[in-house]
Amino acid sequence: MAVVGLAKLHHDKGSYGESVKVLQQYVDHCQDDLTYCTGLAHCLFMAKNYTDASFIYETIIQYYKETQFTLASVPVPVLSRYCAAQLFANADEGRQAKETIAEILRSEKVNFEDPESEYHMVAAKRSHIVSTSLLIAWTYLEKGSYLEAFRKAKETLRLHPWHLEQENNAESSRKTWTVLKKIFLTGLRQFHGLLTDDSINLTALIPEVISDLADMEQFMQTLKVTDRLTNGSTSGLIPKTVAEEARQLRLLCQAYLNRRRGFSNREFTSTDKSYKSEIF
């Protein structure tokens, strides 16, 4: 569709408002076209018109549910951006987004606590819930809702299939970890030294994060944080693995917890202090 191609040119330049203008000229003729509606919703979302984007995303989701009978058939970007748009557009702090997350879980019929679950069958169905949860966490961070971002990041950390073979899951795991690390560090930084209800609630979440990070470490021993050298040199240095960063974040969370409880932070080694300086 030529109109979508023209809108994409503006979109790729970051001119999201212009993309919306181009697409809206053809709304009467193209409103029943799924490609057109999806493109318009994405452009509205990027232009921060979350109310209109949410309405169109909801229409698209309903179409998939009526024609394919399952929420799992809806493309991940549509689901995740719909939930994010709901968070930005509505004053109820994402009630609809949370209901959608619950529906995704029901639709995919994934029981994450069931030790009898066939792992690969479960992992294969997690892309919707992980991507949606991750974008919701990032959206909370953008809104300045640091406790909610931390809480949703904690859920995403548990949901992501870190166990899955690296060759099939490497890029997904790397990107997920990069976003989660940013959210966790920001949360710790924002509440360091504060004694508020939110900081107390965040502190209560940390033991579970520490436990999940410890579990995650054993599966991320070989996955590099980046494919390139961190300092751009040829000195023989190699990038950190995700497991190494997870360990540092785990120790940082423990140090944060210890400070809250009035303990010392002796667990940190000299190699961890640069990571610790992110907060303390």
Describe the structure.
The chain has 280 residues and is mainly α. 69% of the residues lie in helices and 0% in strands. It has helices at 2-12, 16-24, 27-30, 34-46, 50-68, 76-89, 95-108, 119-124, 127-143, 146-159, 166-191, 197-217, 242-261, 273-276. Helix 7 runs antiparallel to helix 9 (127-143) and helix 9 (127-143) runs parallel beside helix 11 (166-191).
Short key terms for the protein model shown above:
280 residues, elongated, TPR-like_helical_dom_sf, mainly alpha
Summarize the helices and strands and which ones pair or pack.
Elements: H1 2-12, H2 16-24, H3 27-30, H4 34-46, H5 50-68, H6 76-89, H7 95-108, H8 119-124, H9 127-143, H10 146-159, H11 166-191, H12 197-217, H13 242-261, H14 273-276
Describe the structure in brief.
The protein is mainly α and 280 residues long.
Report the oligomer. single chain
Mind summarizing the main beta sheet? none
- Strand segment count: 0
Would you identify the regions where 5 or more consecutive residues have pLDDT less than 50? 110-115, 117-124, 229-236
Along the chain, the helix and strand elements come as HHHHHHHHHHHHHH
What is the CA–CA distance across the termini?
Answer: 53 Å
Helix content bin: 55-70%
Q: Mean of residue pLDDT?
A: 78
- Structural shape: elongated
Give the radius of gyration.
Answer: 21 Å
Sheet/helix structural class: mainly alpha
Our estimate of the beta-strand percent is: under 5%
- Count of DSSP helices? 14
InterPro entries: TPR-like_helical_dom_sf
